[in-house]
Design goal:
This is Branched-chain amino acid ABC transporter permease. It is found in: Cell membrane. Keywords: Amino-acid transport, Cell membrane, Membrane, Transmembrane, Transmembrane helix, Transport. It holds the Pfam family BPD_transp_2. It is a multi-pass membrane protein. There is one protein chain. This protein has 288 residues and is mostly helical. The protein has one domain: ABC transporter involved in vitamin B12 uptake, BtuC (Orthogonal Bundle), CATH 1.10.3470. It is 75% helix and 3% strand. It contains eleven helices and two strands; from the N terminus they run H-H-H-H-E-E-H-H-H-H-H-H-H. The protein has a two-stranded antiparallel ribbon. Helix 1 packs parallel to helix 5, helix 1 crosses helix 9 and helix 9 packs across helix 10. It is globular and about 55 Å long.
């Protein structure tokens, strides 16, 4: 029970990170390899707000989310929109975006290393025991999980209960058909990319409350987010949540019973198995 609860608590943060990439890739068709750097930036901003101004990281999300939204909107408009305009096919756009965001990843990583150095950071926030089913867990992990669930619920409401959310889902299914019903595909793609970045930054802020982080760890979380997205089915929010849950529990099992150093290997093994058994993902559909 302790392992399962620990895995579930971890999966909440993983889900937010993966939901950000799901929106960016599933709707805007941008495979953002700098997704992990957005997460790390969220960690550092939450740390800075807490250390300098004693701002609770949960309340700090009200600052971090708009900043990340504006930053990712700017990245899309300046660096990625020209690629979208010149691409003759979705395949070409994916290749071009991978190359562009690969360079962006190193740029952002270098800026953060220059500003914060290579050392690890952490801070004490709600570092208290919280009992669940007779087992003790960090209160910071529990609060981070609850915050992640609330954010995911707001995202679900946005996607399935609002007009703009319906447009986002329509573009994810078929941008050409969305154009035929007067949906501004370019605008929706920009908003979705920015929203995905905001979700990832929020995931980083929540992760920083219980995780030791540094400026160069973004690549690892980009790979985890990519694995979750593909496992769940590209563009499927439900699949990303379920895949994050599976990944969180699997990593906790390996760290507890085998070796904490093998959690990343377990992640890739699970990823390969999913590709062999169900390559379209848990909720994905086979190509006709």
């Amino acid at each position: 029970m302790q392992i399962i609860v620990t895995g579930i608590l971890l999966s909440g943060t993983y889900a937010l990170i993966a939901l950000g990439l799901t929106l960016q890739y599933g709707v805007a068709r941008i495979m953002n390899l700098a997704n992990g750097e957005t997460l790390v930036a969220g960690c550092f901003i939450a740390f800075w707000l807490f250390a300098s101004f004693a701002i609770n990281p949960i309340f700090g999300l009200l600052i971090i989310a708009p900043l990340a939204f504006a930053f990712n909107w700017g990245i899309y408009k300046v660096a990625l929109k020209p690629l979208v305009d010149r691409a003759k096919s979705r395949g070409q756009l994916e290749v071009d975006s991978i190359l562009a965001t690969f360079g962006l990843m190193f740029l952002l990583q270098g800026l953060m290393i220059s500003g914060f150095g290579g050392e690890y950071f952490s801070y004490q926030f709600l570092s208290e025991r919280f009992m669940i089913f007779g087992n003790a867990f960090g209160l910071n992990r529990v609060v981070a999980f609850i915050a992640a669930v609330i954010i995911a619920a707001i995202l679900y409401y946005f996607l399935y209960r609002t007009r703009l959310g319906t447009a986002v889902r329509a573009v994810a299914v078929d941008p050409n058909s969305a154009n035929l019903v007067a949906i501004d595909v370019a605008k929706v793609a920009a908003v979705t990319f920015a929203l995905g970045g905001a979700l990832t930054a929020c995931g980083g802020a929540l992760l920083s409350t219980f995780y030791t982080f540094n400026a160069s760890m973004g690549v690892t979380f980009t790979m985890k987010a990519l694995i979750i997205v593909i496992m769940g089915g590209v563009g499927d929010v439900r699949g990303a949540v379920v895949a994050a849950l599976i990944l969180g529990i699997a990593e906790t099992l390996v760290a507890t019973y085998i070796d904490p150093g093998l959690t990343l290997a377990a992640t890739y093994t699970l990823f390969i198995l999913i590709l062999l058994v169900r390559p379209q993902g848990i909720f994905g559909r086979r190509t006709t």
